[in-house]
Amino acid sequence: MSGPPVLRPALPRDEPFLRAVYASGRAWEFAATSWTEEEKEAFLRHQYDAQEKHYRSAYAGAEWSVITVDGADAGRLIVFRNGAAIEIMDIALLESWRGQGTGTAIVRGIMAEAAALGIPVRLWVENANPARGLYDRLNFRHVSDYGPHCEYVWTPD
Question: Considering the entire predicted model, what is its pTM?
Answer without folding.
Answer: 0.91
